């Protein structure tokens, strides 16, 4: 097969090893929250190593349209906040492909004065928004959806505090309710059966809000005056996931990450890779603005990866990393089983279906379930044309799988990686040994 790269396609040639060190762009989840809260706060927030992804640029553009002054330079992002009062806009707020922006901004805008309309691209316009509208409506918010989806029109209103139990674990829904409760008198509580990532709680505390946690709940005291912060955003562990999994495939690999975010609600992937047999070392661990940051070293096991099952609370904590874990499943000895991950069906794409489709295209046996996959081990993948479905995580996951395949693999829709990680392919080339 003779392949030629285009602006939307990428050729992945097999590697012999993965070696080197990386410092990754800023964590997307943290960047979103710092941008949104910095836009609302008093004073000027200064952020270094802000995420370079298009999704976080959408959050910045939205707060800018709402009246915050955003200054972008090579060194930092500066956000002069609106001191608590966003300005209604005549034009819709474009959230691009970012569900994080749309859902969390809905909570931030629901208690504000005026009307706001949030739109997104075709992919985002298919994603469910009722899960955010429902708890906000219980607080007294007036939000219109289009058959449960975007466009989202918010008619600002005075809200009431709430004690809400999330039916499905979702950090975005939790954040939307907390962001609304931030601007509502009294105490707003969100309860969750599975603890989701806590970047919103840590960011809110950093900006001056009073947030308390129990084992299964988080509460916020309403109506504080948020104050601007200065922060360095740690490297994104969700972006590191692809390189961690790549290094785990090659005996003799040695890959080091500097200044990587190691928030315990996000670092579960390190436990999953350890369970598969990879050797993970964490050095120089320190706390910055409530977030843990450290140096991580990964080496592959000499005898290859074993196998694992991801289900229950673990599936919720690893939801973003499941595609790449499934993609390397054929190279393990005992395979990878994924359950309780139905949320993957309503991400930027139906990730369960696309993972199964692309593994089969590469010659793998895979069994698809409503809430997951069985990927047997001991399989050798071959080159194929990969359908990313315009989903950044699918494009990157199968770029990793292609490193151990026979022949050259063509990733269609490779440009989607820019949504979260525009440097991905360049950094991958840096650490590949051929």
Structural summary, described in words:
The chain is α/β, with parallel strands linked by helices and 434 residues long. It has 2 domains: 9-25 and 234-433, Alpha-beta prism (UDP-n-acetylglucosamine1-carboxyvinyl-transferase, Chain), CATH 3.65.10; 28-231, Alpha-beta prism (UDP-n-acetylglucosamine1-carboxyvinyl-transferase, Chain), CATH 3.65.10.10. Helix content is 29%, strand content 26%. The chain contains 13 helices and 24 strands. The chain has helices at residues 28-40, 54-65, 99-109, 130-138, 171-181, 199-206, 237-248, 268-275, 313-317, 322-328, 351-361, 392-402, 424-431; strands at 9-12, 17-22, 44-48, 69-72, 77-80, 93-94, 115-119, 142-146, 149-155, 163-165, 187-191, 211-213, 217-221, 230-232, 254-261, 279-288, 291-299, 307-310, 335-338, 367-369, 372-375, 385-387, 409-412, 432-433. The strands form 6 sheets. Strands 16-17-15-2-24 form a 5-stranded mixed sheet. β16 and β17 (291-299) form a beta hairpin. α1 (28-40) runs parallel beside α6 and α3 packs parallel to α5. The two termini are 20 Å apart. The model has no long low-confidence stretch (mean pLDDT 96).
Annotate the secondary structure layout.
Layout: E1 9-12, E2 17-22, H1 28-40, E3 44-48, H2 54-65, E4 69-72, E5 77-80, E6 93-94, H3 99-109, E7 115-119, H4 130-138, E8 142-146, E9 149-155, E10 163-165, H5 171-181, E11 187-191, H6 199-206, E12 211-213, E13 217-221, E14 230-232, H7 237-248, E15 254-261, H8 268-275, E16 279-288, E17 291-299, E18 307-310, H9 313-317, H10 322-328, E19 335-338, H11 351-361, E20 367-369, E21 372-375, E22 385-387, H12 392-402, E23 409-412, H13 424-431, E24 432-433
Parallel strand pairs: 2-15, 3-14, 6-7, 10-11, 18-19, 22-23
Antiparallel strand pairs: 1-23, 2-24, 3-5, 4-5, 7-9, 8-9, 11-13, 12-13, 15-17, 16-17, 19-21, 20-21
Helix pairs in contact: 1-2, 1-3, 1-6, 2-3, 3-5, 4-5, 7-12, 10-12
